[in-house]
Specification:
Oligomer: single chain
Order of helices and strands: EEEEEEEEEEE
Radius of gyration: 13 Å
Number of helices: 0
Strand content: over 45%
Helix content: under 10%
Shape: globular
Distance between the termini: 40 Å
Length: 114
């Protein structure tokens, strides 16, 4: 069982930056990958960035060049550095990891004002 807790969301002006954090706790044999998803009002949840156990990362086209995902294996943490934020980035951001199944955090709100 894995428990994920996100933090770092908030209100920021367009062009600003935020860093989201996610801490994993519990027990697992191996975390294959960790990821950030987001869900805007009236829209489906979508992947934003994923990072594998080796550190390889993938990004949604809409955030490439602006967001960076990175992991701290020793602390069981994953982060999402978000720069040049746009109002379209406004959403609830969820941390996720895959071990024997996919786990989700409770989400953290990110609001970007124009």
């Amino acid at each position: 069982q894995v428990h994920l807790v996100e933090s770092g969301g908030g209100l920021v002006q367009a062009g600003g930056s935020l860093t989201l954090s996610c801490e994993a706790s519990g027990s697992w044999f191996r975390i294959d990958s960790m990821a950030w998803y987001r869900q805007a009002p009236g829209k489906e949840r979508e992947p934003v960035a994923t990072i594998g156990d080796s550190g390889s990362a993938n990004y949604a086209d809409s955030v490439k060049g602006r967001f960076t995902i990175f992991r701290d294996h020793a602390k069981n943490m994953v982060y999402l550095q978000m720069n040049s934020l746009k109002p379209d980035d406004t959403a609830v951001y969820y941390c996720s990891c895959i071990t024997s199944r996919q786990y989700w955090g409770q989400g953290t709100q990110v609001t970007v004002s124009s």
